[in-house]
Structures are given as C-alpha cells and as structure tokens.
C-alpha cells in the first residue's frame, strides 16, 4: 500500500476536480463522509466509487460516524434510523440476552446499509463509560454506565459490524466518559487518579483491544499521566497507556484535528500527533487549504504504521444476508416501542 498517514473529509456531494487531483497526488489512507456528502444511495455510491478510483485502491478506507441516535450521518429515507447506544443498555438491564441480540443485530443491519454504499469503516463502538457530572457529548452514545455493560454491548456491536462486512473503530481511547467538557469546543482535563482511570475509563478498551484493528484517540488531558498534553499529542499516554497498559496494537487515528480542543495550525497539530505515536491524522472539515497543510505535514505510511494499516481492513466479510425485512422486524420486536424507521 502506498498512502500517506492521514484521512480527510470532502466538501460536498461529488468529487470535484481539485479534490480528485488532491486524492490522486497526496494519496491519503482514507476518506471520511459526513451529512454534507449525503443525498441519496446512488449519489453516495458514485462518490465512494470516485474516491476509490482517484486513490487507485478499490479497497480504500471510507469511513463514517454511523452510530445511531443523534450521531447518524446517513438517515431516512436513504437508510433506516437506529436508536442510540443507551437504548440497548436499557434493554440489557431488563434482559441481557435481548440487549446483546439487539445491539449486534442493529450493528449488522447498519453495516449492511453501509457496505452497499461503498463504506467499509464505521467509527463505532463508543467504549466510553460516562461518570456523574460529565458532559453529555457522550451521554446516550454510551451503552451503559458500567464497565461490564459497555464491554458486553460494545463487543456485540463489533461482532455485528464485522458480520456485515464493515470494520469497527473503538473510540475514544483511552476514555472520554469522565470529561466535563466537549472536546469539539474546548480541551477537557480529567483529574481522576490513575487507579480510577484503570478501573473504569481504560477497562473497556483493555478488554476489547485484542479484537480491534482500528481506534480513535481522545483530545483529552489525563493529568495523572500527562498534565501538559492531550492524549492525541502525548507520547506518554500513547506508549504507556494505549499501547502498553491497554494493549491496543491496531491502527491509531486522531479524533478530528479541526476540533477546538487542540491548539496550533493544522500542520502543527498533525506533526505533533505523528510525533506522539498516532498512525493516522484525521482531518474532517473538507477545507482544501487545511487538507494540503495536513498532507504536507505527515509522512508516508511505513514500518509498524504501514503494517497496521495493511491489516486494519482485513477479516470483515459479510455473512449471508438472508431476509433483511425479517432482521429488521426482529430488531423492532426487541426494541419494543422504539421501532426502527421504515
């Protein structure tokens, strides 16, 4: 694979000539789609085909945040709507078997939606464990408020996505659930001691690390480990916590470096992330000038990062689809009153 250590967004519904040339010349590892890139199924498929053609990689990584609930980039009528993660937690509390089945089934159905549109990576599951008083940026995106619930349902979602042919991405390493502010708007600082972080925040990632080939790192300061840098820019957190204690050996991406939690220019943010140990810089807003700065600031994938990238999309092959209407009806039964949209 010949690719640079970044993934980028796109400006609109079609691949413009400037974007096409940028992808061809700079060769990002992947592209991430947002609501601004979505109109209908035929348009999405044309867009994803165009990206793969420009990158000269038919299996190029095309990412999306398709969680369900308030974070669902593709919505009806293009695909059905799905509930937030917390709904599966509610079912699980009453009946663990049904909660697990619902979470896995919803993830598989979402994956089947995505793979038909040429999207092969879903930035899901959220493995953060919310703590009392934390910001609601995670909120109902979490599967529960205990490690056991998050691990069990998060693992079910990973299995469902993989069964649908889509690679899951665990986020936000090493844990965003305790943050009291939204990293889209400002830099959160978590002051919990290391024992508390180990027992709660890091635990879901540690328990599922062996099953994950892709992960996103949080723009959060963990003062017990590094009181000067957010995880994205902290070699201490990436090496000692994410790689060693958690044991994550997959491809590590930044969260969107356009977020206000980080300081400095896009180029500075990118260089610091790579220097700290991130494999891929994720830049999402589709602004061409910023994209060029990022592309000029990151290296070509090589060494361990290249090995992780080559392995990251391997092993997710869709099961026999079967009767999708039946699968949706079964999910509706499990959800009760919160039926998926037609």
UniProtKB/TrEMBL annotation:
Keyword Signal set for record: no
InterPro entries in alphabetical order: GH, Glyco_hydro_3_AS, Glyco_hydro_3_N, Glyco_hydro_3_N_sf, NagZ_Beta-hexosaminidase
PROSITE patterns per UniProt: GLYCOSYL_HYDROL_F3 (PS00775)
Known EC number: 3.2.1.52
Domain Glycoside hydrolase family 3 N-terminal: 17-300
Gene Ontology terms for molecular function: beta-N-acetylhexosaminidase activity
Reaction(s) catalysed by this chain's protein: Hydrolysis of terminal non-reducing N-acetyl-D-hexosamine residues in N-acetyl-beta-D-hexosaminides
EC top class named in words: hydrolase
Keyword DNA-binding: no
Keywords for this protein: Glycosidase, Hydrolase
Family: Belongs to the glycosyl hydrolase 3 family.
Name of protein: beta-N-acetylhexosaminidase
Taxonomic source organism: Rhodopseudomonas julia
